[in-house]
Amino acid sequence: MPDFLRTVLAAAVVLGVLVFIHELGHYSAARWRGVHVEVFSIGFGKPLFRWRDKHGTEWRICILPIGGYVKPHGFEGPEEASPETRSTWLPGRTFHDKPVLSRAIVIAAGPIFNFLLAIVLFAVVFAISGKPADQSDYAALRPSIGGVSVGSPADKAGIKPGDVIEQVDGVSIPNFANLQRLIGASPGRQVRLTVLRDGHELDLPVKLGSTTSGGQATGQLGVQAQLPPPKHVSPGEAFVAAIQTTGVVMVGWVSGFWQIITGHVSPSHLGGTLRIAQMSGQFAAAGFTSLLTFMAILSINLGMVNLLPVPVLDGGRLVFYAIEALRGRPVSRGVQEYGFRAGFMLIVGIFLFATVNDLTQFGLFDWLRHVIG
């Protein structure tokens, strides 16, 4: 399949599935809590297809497949609805009349379904391909090199995948974890590595790199461990491992987000829809299980982003509901309105920033400078 076509199809599948599952969470929770759902839409803009189910919900597939939404009946309150709208409300089935707990469940269900989807996808991958080795599996292995980062100190020194690092400055290296500790404690130093390659020992001088984390410099070599093959596991073990992996990715997301907020990681790492489309095509080319793994990670990202305490996002609404539960009355409409406006502007700004990052990575602006020059 041509690369462009594969990228387009993979992006449509990935984004379509993730958005559908997220909105299905809102829809299912609304039905559970007795709220009528007026519209379930995949995409925005003009509907390409639409139909109405036996429960009276209109399902839509729209022309711009970059998101979706569920519209609960009576989502707006009486003070913001027109008399004509209020006259069509179904008693007992409006969103605004439900207790704050029911409203919070409906809103929280979207991200929760994203996390559940990630668990299911990881479980399928582990059941098909086996559970990848984790830190405890390879830390005690020989310090065999599985990969070398391009442009890293190891790359410049001539270290290759398959090499075994036996010594650092004459100190024996029993396992990869020991190599990590020695390198990490030597930021910026010139060291001599004794490397075993094809049965022959080589002495390679290396100028280590340095990175700062938490105010402390750490040495960098730029190699990845050669991991053992995945372990074949039972369906039950695959499910347990999937839950653990989802938790690890969630913690990693929080850590990465905090590093961007505190300035330890450049915001240029933020990617948008274009980069998601590009990566979808790349993972699709790598194989079915690779694409499922990418979808699982992306589903967790979607759930975590939606839980941010930003008005307009699910997390912002949950903050308002938490305040309402504590105060015994809703946050004033004025405060909510200003919050939603500010949140909308923030989200638009982040979207534009991420899109510029994507276009920069693709080389568009370098190409424009070249053409103009």
UniProtKB/TrEMBL annotation:
UniProt cofactor(s): Zn(2+)
Domain PDZ: 122-199
GO molecular function: metal ion binding; metalloendopeptidase activity
Class of enzymatic activity (EC top level): hydrolase
Keyword Cell cycle included in the entry's annotation: no
Keyword vocabulary terms for this entry: Hydrolase, Membrane, Metal-binding, Metalloprotease, Protease, Transmembrane, Transmembrane helix, Zinc
BP-aspect Gene Ontology terms: proteolysis
EC number: 3.4.24.-
Primary localization class, coarse: membrane
TM annotation in the entry: 6-24, 104-128, 238-261, 282-302, 338-356
Protein's name according to its UniProt entry: Zinc metalloprotease
